Amino acid sequence: MKRRVLLSTIGTVALSTSSAVRAQDPRRMPHLGILLFSTPQGDPQMEALQAGLRELGYSEGHNLVLQYR
Question: What distance in Å separates the CA atoms of residue 52 and residue 41, rounded to the nearest whole number?
């Protein structure tokens, strides 16, 4: 009986920690996808978006990845 409890406890801990660790990985940065009809350089809407993100504490390349399409 004790063996079953030990094995089930080990299995539960192994399954629960693997997904939690991956979700809290500090190296993973959030990605923001942006659809544009023009280039992002010099676009007033992109400048306003980046200014708003800076106000919220986000900086491209440091804690946020912007993907332009």
Answer: 16
Backbone angles phi, psi at 34, to 5 degrees: -130, 125
> Helix, strand or coil for residue 26?
coil
Mean pLDDT score across all residues of the chain: 78
Q: How confident is the model over 47-57, as pLDDT tens digits?
A: 898 999 999 99
Cα 62 to Cα 50: distance, rounded to the nearest angstrom: 13
State the pTM of this model.
0.55
Residue 28, domain extent = 2-68
Strand boundaries in the chain, DSSP class E: 31-34, 65-68
Q: How many CB atoms lie within 10 A of CB 67?
A: 9
Closest of 66, 69, 65 to residue 29, by C-alpha = 65
**Tally of domains in the chain:** 1
